[in-house]
Specification:
Layout: E1 20-22, E2 25-27, E3 34-39, E4 44-50, H1 54-69, H2 78-94, H3 96-107, H4 111-132, E5 140-141, E6 147-155, E7 158-162, H5 168-182, E8 185-189, H6 196-208, E9 215-217, H7 222-231, E10 237-241, H8 244-255, E11 260-264, E12 270-273, H9 279-291, E13 303-307, H10 311-324, H11 343-358, E14 362-365, E15 380-383, H12 390-393, E16 400-406, H13 409-417, E17 424-428, H14 432-441, E18 446-449, E19 468-469, E20 482-490
Parallel strand pairs: 7-8, 7-10, 8-9, 10-11, 12-13, 12-17, 13-16, 15-16, 17-18
Antiparallel strand pairs: 1-2, 3-4, 5-6, 6-20, 11-19, 14-15
Helix pairs in contact: 1-7, 2-4, 2-6, 3-4, 4-5, 9-10
The structure holds adenosine-5'-diphosphate.
């Protein structure tokens, strides 16, 4: 008979990979430089990681170019590519405990989140795209005249992939999945805050049978390694997830070569609660919508619009839940919220909390640092927020919720859309017609109705407006990694 056992605190993971992964080899940076990666829960150095720069990126692009132009990956039977990707997912799954611990150590997220959320989603994404590998095909097109016209979908080439630190393993799967299925080769730069799990995944990819040179990983900093990827003429396409400011730099730098670009950027997503909603569910949705991943989500429901009729009672629930949220050691299985990823993020968030107070919003709960070591911040709720305040307009990327009151539908839609962002939105109501109307009128790439943060490998995700362009996940997520070639054959 099975007996229930309390989840145990995982052991500190071993650090195996700290070098660059280029052409199937683990190598130091040519400069010999390394950088520290920090445990955000303790501020201690976890490991020194090789610091790649332009010279290393050049070597990585050379390896990826050769693997694309001459290697087996784009040429092998597509089904075999899929099989290797399935094997990679199996190898990741076999190490799920160790990987979750490594993710928690480097990023600060609760180990239970990594184990039950991030990594299962990454597995799903890799397997979803593994299934696509042999289903990427063109069309036959009836054109005028006596011709046979068809299209082929061909890999775009070498993909440069620059990812952020908030979901390191998931981001790898979102980027590698479609690129590998399409037959592309890859030069990836993980974020300088969280290089460790990406390097571990590269080792597993090699073990799974991904040929040398197909996946190259160059940890390092944005203005050096990242910029070198963007500018390198051997890279055909850049996929970037991160801040809008960096995306603007990338777009300018990629302009000379007219590189293909996809961007997944920030948000200031409205999460809208009508008075007729299931308020228990909506309160959970408001809570998860803002606090998931320490608030470090591009789609965080950071503007909570509450209908005036229920405003007081609903805010009370949200505040009460915020107070009960367990903040602490990411390795404790009971922890719900770990530290912010680094000092820069911590300082930025504390600055927004100060600005909210200064501008006259009411800090209903939270607002302070937790402890004196590590980058922990209390779950924070601001009420009496006005649309023009910085905390209602700018992306905070932390556990800080701004509550706004509304009474009229048209006014609500106008205010919800009055932002340069357009990544996601939530709406809570029992009125089906209203739910669909709001879903239609919101200018956002994803609208969740009576739910929030429901992601699926098959459902496209990406931004309207300055939240980015191109889509990741789903069939649409393959498009940026494919060129369409039209072949026209005279039958005369
Ligand atoms: P965040 O503020 O979330 O750290 P960034 O946009 O600064 O977002 O970083 C996201 C990723 O982009 C990281 O891997 C970072 O190193 C990289 N990056 C930063 N600046 C540049 C740049 N100029 N060119 C290319 N990549 C960059």
């Amino acid at each position: 008979m099975a007996t229930a056992t309390a989840p145990v605190k995982p052991a500190r993971p071993q650090i195996h990979q700290t070098q660059l992964f280029i052409g199937g080899q683990w190598v130091p940076a040519m400069s010999g430089k390394t950088f520290d990666t920090i445990n955000p829960a303790t501020e201690e150095v976890i490991a020194q990681v090789a610091e790649g720069d332009a010279a290393d990126v050049d070597a990585a692009v050379h390896a990826a170019r050769q693997a694309f132009d001459e290697g087996p990956w784009p040429r092998m039977d597509a089904r075999e590519r899929g099989r290797i990707m399935f094997r990679l997912a199996d190898l990741i799954e076999a190490e799920i405990g160790e990987l979750a611990a490594l993710e928690a150590l480097d990023n600060g997220k609760p180990v239970s989140d990594a184990r039950t959320g991030d990594i299962p989603f990454a597995l799903d994404t890799l397997r979803y795209y593994a299934g696509w590998a042999d289903k990427i095909h063109g069309q036959t097109i009836p054109i005028n005249g006596n011709y046979f016209c068809y299209t082929r979908r061909e890999p775009v080439g070498v993909a440069g992939q620059v990812i952020p630190w908030n979901f390191p393993i998931s981001m790898v799967s979102w980027k590698w999945g479609p690129a590998l299925a399409a037959g592309c080769t890859i030069v990836m730069k993980p974020a300088e805050q969280t290089p460790l799990t990406c390097l571990r995944l590269a080792r597993l990819a090699q073990k799974a049978g991904v040929p040398d040179g197909v996946i190259n990983v160059v940890p390092g900093f944005g203005p050096t390694a990242g910029a070198a990827i963007v500018k390198h003429p051997g890279i055909d396409k850049v996929a970037f997830t991160g801040s809008g400011e960096t995306a603007q730099i990338i777009m300018r730098q990629a302009a000379d070569q007219l590189k293909r670009l996809t961007f997944e950027l920030g948000g200031k997503s409205p999460n809208i609660v009508f008075a007729d909603a299931d308020l228990d569910a909506a309160a959970v949705g408001a809570h998860v919508g803002i606090y998931l991943n320490q608030g470090q989500c591009c789609c965080a429901g950071s503007r909570l619009f509450v209908e005036d009729k229920i405003h007081g009672q609903f805010v009370e629930r949200v505040v009460e839940m915020s107070r009960k949220r367990k903040v602490g050691d990411p390795f404790d299985p009971a922890t719900e919220q770990g530290p912010q990823v680094d000092k820069a993020q911590f300082d930025k968030i504390m600055g927004y909390i100060e600005s909210g107070k200064r501008e006259g919003a009411t800090c209903a709960t939270g607002g302070k640092r937790v402890g004196d070591r590590g980058f922990f911040i209390e779950p924070t709720v601001f009420t009496n927020v006005k649309d023009e305040m910085a905390i209602a307009r700018e992306e905070i990327f932390g556990p800080v919720l701004s509550v706004l009151k509304f009474s009229d539908m048209d006014e609500l839609i106008r205010r919800a859309n009055a932002t340069n962002f357009g990544l996601a939105a939530g709406v809570w109501t029992r009125d089906v017609a209203r739910a669909h109307e709001v879903a239609k009128r919101l200018r956002a790439g994803t609208v969740w109705v009576n739910c929030y943060d429901v992601f699926d490998a098959a459902a496209p995700f990406g931004g309207f407006k300055q939240s980015g362009f191109g889509r990741e996940l789903g069939e649409r997520g393959l498009d940026p990694y494919l060129e369409t070639k039209t072949v026209t054959v005279s039958l005369k």
